[in-house]
Amino acid sequence: MTLRRQIAAVIALVSCLVALAVGVLVHQASVRQHTDQARASATAALDSVLTGYDATGDLVAGWHAAADDPALPADLRRLAERGRQGSVLAPGPNGPAMWAAAGADGRVLSVRMDYAGDARAIADLDRAVAVGAALSVLVTVLAGVLAADRISSRLRTAARTARTIARGDPDARIGPLGRPRDEVAELAAAVDSMSAALRSRLAGEQRFTADVAHELRTPLTGLLTASELLPPGRPTELVRNRVRALRDLTEDLLEVSRLDSGADPPEPADLPLGPLLSRAVAAAGTGAELRIATDAVVSTEPRRFERVLANLLANAHRHGRPPVLVSAEGTAVTVRDHGPGYPEEVLREGPRRFRTGARERGGGHGLGLTIAQGHAEAVGARLELANHPDGGASARLVLPGPDH
């Protein structure tokens, strides 16, 4: 149940309980007032009847006075026979009535006051209270729903901004959420402050990564040159391989830093996919098999496209098994190998830089897929990673058309 419905339900429940309590209290007060008035009138009438009976020996006409009335309630009759005076609200010949009785000269004298008018008045008051309570509950619930909707709307705005930040946009801000400085406004201010701090920290980390990678390029280039002067042999080859791997990692770090900072804006153009794909596969030099089912015109940047395809092919050859197939159908390009496939966490969370482990298709730094995804997003393409039903990893690059 949403917060808005919870608040509305609580307000409705509280309003109904308050209305019920008020209605019960008003009903009891009304019944007590009418009963007391009727009892006082019946007692006063009985006193007049007793006074007249003592003086004349006969009953005073009026008030439905009677001696030994067979309709008199039994409890009141027994009380009067014991010489005591009392009154009771009980049924009468014409509806509810207030009875008063007392004993005199061995007889039971009684007075009956009709209570039907009082009962109707109480019923009318109950109906009026019920209608008023229903209207007040309705108005209160509507006001509560509006207030809850406003709170819920402000919280949804904050949640959308938080999700935007979680998707990698630290520049997103909630902004002011109305005038009142309440808890929701404090939450929005806290999220905006967190976003600003995150943006500042990310910018610092990007600058640090770029500076470190840039500073490493010169000594690594010299180290690679020096390794070429070493005498041939297995140790020399190991040194050269490690230096090349470190150089490639440094270049990847620089490229990731440029992608994160957006320092290299894309310049897409409308190009036929077939020739572009053929050149990219040939430039990669991995010996992948190319199949073009249908050709199409796509909007992309050739340099970024070749970089994405080269990374996907390198990933397939490094972590998969041959044959590696590159197929094109429409504006979609698929690179598939026949290896163990992507691990579940990669399919669930997407590429993550510096992801290592035995399950990560042979280990690695995770920068190849990260760079491929970054270049794809820069030109408006979509990179989809999956495992083929027949085995192997499948990376599908969906490029935008010329009229995207």
UniProtKB/TrEMBL annotation:
Top EC class, one word: transferase
Keyword match Transferase: yes
Reactions mediated catalytically: ATP + protein L-histidine = ADP + protein N-phospho-L-histidine
Molecular function GO terms recorded: phosphorelay sensor kinase activity
SUPFAM superfamilies: ATPase domain of HSP90 chaperone/DNA topoisomerase II/histidine kinase (SSF55874), HAMP domain-like (SSF158472), Homodimeric domain of signal transducing histidine kinase (SSF47384)
Signal sequence coordinates: none
Residue ranges annotated for the HAMP domain, each copy included: 149-203
InterPro entries for this protein: HAMP_dom, HATPase_C_sf, HATPase_dom, His_kinase_dom, HisK_dim/P_dom, HisK_dim/P_sf, TCS_sensor_his_kinase
Sequence ranges assigned to domain Histidine kinase in this UniProt record: 211-403
E.C. numbers: 2.7.13.3
SMART domains listed in its UniProt record: HAMP (SM00304), HATPase_c (SM00387), HisKA (SM00388)
Domain of life: Bacteria
Subcellular location: Cell membrane
GO cellular component, one term: plasma membrane
Pfam families: HAMP, HATPase_c, HisKA
Keywords: Kinase, Membrane, Phosphoprotein, Transferase, Transmembrane, Transmembrane helix, Two-component regulatory system
Name of the protein described by the UniProt record: histidine kinase
Organism: Kitasatospora cineracea
Lineage: Bacteria, Bacillati, Actinomycetota, Actinomycetes, Kitasatosporales
